[in-house]
Amino acid sequence: MPEITSQSVKPISLILLVHQEAETIAQVIKDFYDKVIAKIPGSQIIICEDGSTDGTKEILKNLAKQYPLTLDLREQKRGYTGAMKDGFALAQNPVIFFSDSDGQHDPADFWRMYPLLEQYDMVIGWKKNRQDVWYRLLMTYVFNKLISLYFGTKLHDIDCGFRLIKKEAVSFLLQQTWRIKHCVNSELTVKVRAAGFSVGEIPVAHFSRQFGASRGLPVKKLPKIVWHILSGLPQIKKDIKQIKAGQTKP
Ligand SMILES: Nc1nc2c(ncn2[C@@H]2O[C@H](COP(=O)(O)OP(=O)(O)OP(=O)(O)O)[C@@H](O)[C@H]2O)c(=O)[nH]1
Ligand SMILES: [Mg+2]
Questions:
Q1: Rounded to the nearest 5°, which phi and psi values hold at 56?
Q2: Is ligand 1 within 6 A of the CB of residue 128?
Q3: How far apart are CA 38 and CA 15, in angstroms?
Q4: Residue 195: CB within 6 Å of ligand 1?
Q5: Looking at the predicted structure, is the pLDDT value of residue 11 above 80?
Q6: Contact, 55 vs 244, CB < 8 A?
Q7: Looking at ligand 1, which residue's alpha carbon is closest to its atom 11?
Q8: Is any atom of ligand 1 closer than 6 Å to the C-beta of 100?
Q9: pTM of model > 0.70
Q10: 243 CA → ligand 1 middle, Å
Q11: Residue 133 CA: which ligand is closest?
C-alpha cells in the first residue's frame, strides 16, 4: 500500500449529519479537525443539522467562529436521507468523507482508509468490533447476509455510515432516486456498484454512544422500519437493472 502524507492527500469534504448531539458535537468537530481537516489544506467541513431542540444549533453557530464549518441548519426535520443528499450537493472537493457525528468513530481511521482510494471509488468502514446492543448486532448480521444474497455484494457492513467516496460517485448518486429512508447507505452502495464504481472495505474502530440511549433502531418502530426496507428492495433491484443498462459511469 502506498505511504501517504498529508501533502499527497486531495482536499476532502467532510460531511457530518447532526440531530440532537449537544453533548457530543463540540468534541466530535474538534477531533475531526485536529486529526484530519487541519492536516489537509483546502478541506471543508459540512454540517447538515435539522430539528435539534437541545441546544445543538447554538453550539454549532459558536463552533463556526473557531472552525471552517459550512453550516446547513434547519428548523424542520428533513431526516437522515434528506440531510445526506443536501450534504452531498454542498461537497466541492474530490473526496467526500462521510461520518456520523455521535462520537462513535475515530477520525484517525481516515488515514488507513484513504490509500484504498487508489483501488476503489468508495471505501466503507467495517465496524468489526461493533459496540451496540445484541439485537442490533444480530440485525446487522442478518441484514448484511440478506443484502449479499439479494444483490451479490460481499461486504460485512454495507450500511456503515463512515466512508470515503470519490466525487464522481457522489455526483452519480445525486442523479438517482433514493428509495429507502432507513439503511440508505446500503442502497447507495449497491447503486454505485451497478454503475461500475468499485467498492472496498476496511475494519475501523467503533465506540458505544457516550451520551443517551441508542436511537438508531428504536425497538417500537422496528416492524415498520423492517417492512419499509424489505418492500423497497425490489424497486432498488429494478433501478439497478436500469443503471446497468445505461452504464452511467463516465
Ligand atoms: N441531520 C440529521 N442527522 C441525523 C438524523 N437522524 C440521525 N442523525 C445523525 O446521524 C448520525 C447517526 O444517527 P444515530 O441516531 O447515531 O444512529 P445509530 O448510530 O445507528 O444509532 P445510535 O445507537 O443511537 O448511535 C448521528 O450523528 C445523528 O446525529 C436526522 O434526522 N437528521
Ligand atoms: Mg450512532
A1: -55, -45
A2: no
A3: 15
A4: no
A5: yes
A6: no
A7: 100
A8: yes
A9: yes
A10: 29
A11: 1
At residue 1, the pLDDT reads: 53
pLDDT band at 133 (very low <50, low <70, confident <90, very high): confident
Residue nearest to atom 13 of ligand 1 (CA): 216
Length reported for the chain: 250
- The verdict on the CB of residue 63 being under 6 Å from ligand 1 is no
Looking at residue 247, what is its pLDDT? 65
> H or E stretch including 84?
helix 79-90
Ligand 1 atom with the shortest distance to the CA of 212: 24
Q: Which residue has 437493472 as its cell numbers?
A: 241
Task: Encode pLDDT of 166-224 as tens digits.
Answer: 999 999 999 999 999 999 999 999 999 999 999 999 999 999 988 767 777 778 888 99
Integer-rounded Cα Rg, in Å, for the chain is 17
Domains, in order of start, for the chain: 9-246 (3.90.550.10)
Tell me, what's the pLDDT at 189? 98
Q: Which atom of ligand 1 is nearest to the CA of 84?
A: 1
Q: Show the cell assigned to 234.
A: 425490489
The span from the CA of 54 to the CA of 233, in Å, is 35
User: Could you tell me which residues come within 8 angstroms of residue 36 by beta carbon, excluding any fewer than 6 positions away?
Assistant: 12, 14, 43, 97, 107, 108, 110, 111
